[in-house]
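Sample entry (249 residues):
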Amino acid sequence: MKTAILITARLKSVRLPLKVMKAIHGRPMICHLLDRLKLAERPSDIVVCTSPVAQDDPLEDVAREEGVQCFRGDPEDVLRRLTDAAREFQVDTAINCMADNPFTDPEYIDQLADFHAGNGHDFSQTEGLPRGAFTYAVSYPAMVRACEIKSERNTEIWGRYFTDTGLFKWGTLQVDDPDLRWPELRLTVDTPEDFELVTRVFDELYEPGKVFPLSDIVALCRRKPELPAINASILQRCGMPIKLKNGTQ
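Predicted structure, serialized as tokens:
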């Protein structure tokens, strides 16, 4: 059974243009994410899943330079793109994260993969980590089924197809570790404020050639509350309600 990390990545962001290619300590943000993801032990492959749009060409270049795979699929239908990538690389379980989450935690990738497989889930999620540190696990047959039942192409946020339709077996891995549990802490990058926080964290913790753990990030933000205050006012955008081919939601 093959497990792989599928990274959702585009360069079309409006609030912070070209955000995943913005440099932090001399490297694109997505490269710092890849450094972290390569520490996960359960996945055998990492695939940058982007689009055929010319604007996204730099993402294929980065994938090649960083020694990971690249898949270019549907520009708007994220769930379809991930499903097609899983089929292309013969993935049984996809661990999905987004390229604008440079602090995705590799230890919880492994824990989630084990939780997902051990419970025979179609879809698994993590609850309790800071926003931007967690991932999702989804089985390939469930991805195919979700693509069959959905009626929209805008699937940037797609988890509810698995949790809200009653068609899939799913579960949540709870994070109880007090050194990591802080779901209100915003470590994703959508805005200039988000990028400032991430950059400040790197300024404090980064050493070239090393990956500092999520526990150090959380500890730093507890010790210096002025850091999480940088983006505390940013509201997370909510996904649109899912729509199924039979007209239900």
